[in-house]
Amino acid sequence: MSAVPQQELPRPGGFPEIRYKRYLPKLGPSGLVLFSGITLMCTFGLYRTGQGIHERRELEREKVWSRIYLIPMLQAEADRDTYRREVAAREREAQIMKNVKGWKVGESVYNSKRYTPQTHVVLP
Amino acid sequence: MSTHREATNLSTGKFVDPTPAPSESAHPEVGATSAPLKSAAFFIGAYCKDYNEDFLLCKDENNDPAHCLKEGRKVTRCAMDLINKLRENCEKEWETHYKCLEKHNQEYYACRKQESTFNECVFSKLVML
Fold first, then answer.
1. CA distance B121 to B128
2. Is B22 part of any domain?
3. What ipTM was estimated for this complex?
4. Which of A34, A53, A55, B47 is the most buried (most CB within 10 A)?
């Protein structure tokens, strides 16, 4: 037995490095790039959606105004026709009720001066 | 034998009153269909603004059809006048535009090109605004 104790030592040149890390290949862009890219895309999409909503609203406004501008003309025409029908109906009523004493032709059933369209009409 | 019917039948066309209009309300009608009217709507609105507003104020005063016959005749006459002017000056452009409207469900946005040529014609030939 020698006096110098024999100690276990690494082999000459040392052990190779232990590979404890995962060596995955780098996949795709970084999180920051992804996050900011998605934010940008969403912002752009929302902007375009907003523009579309504005445009649709304007189109609707245009349509409504085109109808508003035509209302007086159409209403005037309809009024003349209604007036013609009412006069004719009153004449028929007068003809039918001429023998009834105290009958007022075209008298409203309402106790009001406001105009009410006729709900019933006398047909010949 | 006369009967009573609901007045709603009148608008469904089951009963057409053949009585001619009384002399105080008789007036020729515009007689245009929906597409030409829609095509010229903004011109009618601008050209007949005073008459239209007068008529609507009158209607607001009293809803009776007999109350606003005079104002209504003015409105119709104004629209007919404008339609005659459009037909004299821009008939081709107007026809192109309203035929396009007819084809595209009467949506304005489908016929911008025809609309702008019609507008250009009206603005250059009819100074009315």
1. 12
2. no
3. 0.85
4. B47
